[in-house]
UniProtKB/TrEMBL annotation:
InterPro entries: HTH_MarR-typ (IPR000835), MarR/SlyA-like (IPR039422), Tscrpt_reg_MarR-type_CS (IPR023187), WH-like_DNA-bd_sf (IPR036388), WH_DNA-bd_sf (IPR036390). Pfam families: MarR_2. Keywords: DNA-binding, Transcription, Transcription regulation. The keyword Cell membrane does not apply. SMART domains: HTH_MARR (SM00347). This is MarR family winged helix-turn-helix transcriptional regulator. SUPFAM superfamilies: Winged helix' DNA-binding domain.
Amino acid sequence: MSASRRLPVDPIAEAKRQWVAHGWESAAAGMTAVTSIIRAQQLMFARIDATLKPFGLSFARYELLRLLAFTRSGRMPMASAIARLQVHPTSVTNTVDRLARDGLVSREPHPVDGRAAMLVITSAGVNLVEDATAALNSEVFEDVGLSGADTAELVRIIARFRKDSGDFTDPRPQPDPL
């Protein structure tokens, strides 16, 4: 938010004051945490959207291209992409449809499962996602607006919350190599 649009009071702190004043003190800290996270997400998405706009990408489209570009062969089953992106299958299908329309990904038959599709990133998709990643790294990810220690602490706290909410499990210890 620009300096000229800054509010004279923190609306989340005011909401907390109101929660307490209305007798909801036991819920005030939780409401403050939830609304703070949502507002922080809005601020981060505004930076991400501004950075990706010149590339014609939404964050969802970027994530799918980046996921495919990270694979060894630039391809993965649609079901794997859905699982890794942690969004509704319809959302991934719509994203794939738009990326395919733009020539950034293609669908191919799965080599084993005739009912499944493989998503394949095209060379145009690779070039675009590499350029977009360089921009995101320099304009957003290298300086998210927090110190290194605060960033690490925030990631630890949110990861613990996500794990406790059933978002993921720790990998089982792998056997020692032979």
